[in-house]
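Hey, can you fold this one?
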Amino acid sequence: MAQSRQRRIVLGITGGIAAYKAAELTRLLIKDGIDVQVVMTEAACGFITPATLQALSGKPVFTDLWDGRVADNMAHIALSRGADAIVIAPASADFMAKLANGLADDLLSTLCLARECPLLVAPAMNRQMWENKATQRNVALLERDGVNLLGPASGDQACGETGLGRMLEAAQIFEAINAQFAPKLLAGKQVLITAGPTFEALDPVRGITNRSSGKMGYAIARAALDAGAKVTLLSGPVHLEPPVGAHIERVESTEQMFAAVKKHVKAADIFIGVAAVADYRPARVSTQKIKKTDRDMPLQLIQNPDILAWVAAQPKAPFTVGFAAESQKLNEFADAKRRRKKVRLMVANLAQHAIGADDNEVTLLDDAGLHKLARAPKTEVARQIVAHIASLVTPRRKIRK
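Sure. Predicted structure:
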C-alpha cells in the first residue's frame, strides 16, 4: 500500500509577544510528522530569532522578499506552492489588515496573496486593538473571504490587561490544523457528548465520585469536531481545557447531567455517553458538614437515573453510543449492557488500564460483532471511534452495476 504524502505547512510568524508560542507549535507539528517551512516578518524577528525556528523545524527560515536562495527570486511563489495550508500564528492587527485588504509589501503578506491553499489565522493583540471597529471590519472581510480564524481567546495579556485578544495556546492551534485535514465524516451532524465523572454530595465538602479524568470524552469531542460535527459537550468536574469549537456545559451531579441531556438531546443526531456517571447517590444530603464521631456512619444510597438507557428509549432517539468500563469479562459484560440498554454501539475497555491514562485499548461492539482497536493514544482511539460511528450513521451506498 502506498504511503500518504507528507503534509506541508507554511508557518507565518508576525510581530507580537505571542511569537514565543510559535516555537512550541513548530515542535508539535514536527513531532506529528508534518513538514514545516517558517516565514517571519521583520517585526517577528524582534521577538524570537530565526535561529530558534530553524533549529526546531530543521529548515532555513525565510524573512526577505528578495531572498537569493530561491533561484528565480520568487520566494513568495516557491514557498506557497505545494503547501497544504498556511498558518499565521501570531497574526498581529497590522498583518490582518494587510490580508483583509490585499496589501503585499513583504514576503509573508505576498506569499499569502499568492497562495493556492487554505489560510488559517491565529490573532494576537491587545483587547482594545481586537475590539477596535477597524479590526472587526477586517475580521469580517477575512471570514467572508474564507479565511479560517482560530481564536482569539480571553485571558491575561502581556500588557497587564485582561480580555479578548490573547492567542490560542500552541496545542489548540495544532488541533485546529489537524481538523483542517480530517475527513468531514460527520459534516452537518449534531453530536451530544457526556464526559468526566459525576460528584454526588454527602454534605457541603464531601461527596462520592470516581477516578475518571474526562480525557476520553474530551478526545471524542475533538475528533467529532474534526469530522465536521457540531458538538455539545456536557462535562463533569475535570481539569481539562475544552476543545475549541465545542459548546460546553459544566455539571456536577448525575441529576444535573441528566437535566442537561434532556435539554439538548432532541437536537442531537448522535449521543455519545462517555461520562462515568455514578449509579447511586446518597439518600440524604446534609446541609452542614457532617462532624466526625466515635461511631460508624451508616450510608444509604439510592439509584440515579440511567441516562444512557433513557436516551436510547426515546421515540426518536439519536444514534446512541455507550461506554462500558469493566474490570473483568469485558466483552461479555459490555455486550450484555449493550443489549439491555438497546444502544447501537458500545465501546468497552478495562477500567484498570484506562482511567487517568493518556492511551487506551477498546473494543467496539455492535450488531455486526466485535471490533478490537489496538492500544493507542486516546486522541487516535477517539478518531477511530468517530470513524466507526460515521460508518454506521452514514453507511456507504452500494453502487449498482
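Confidence is low (pLDDT under 50) at residues 397-401. Let me know if you want another pass with a different chain boundary.
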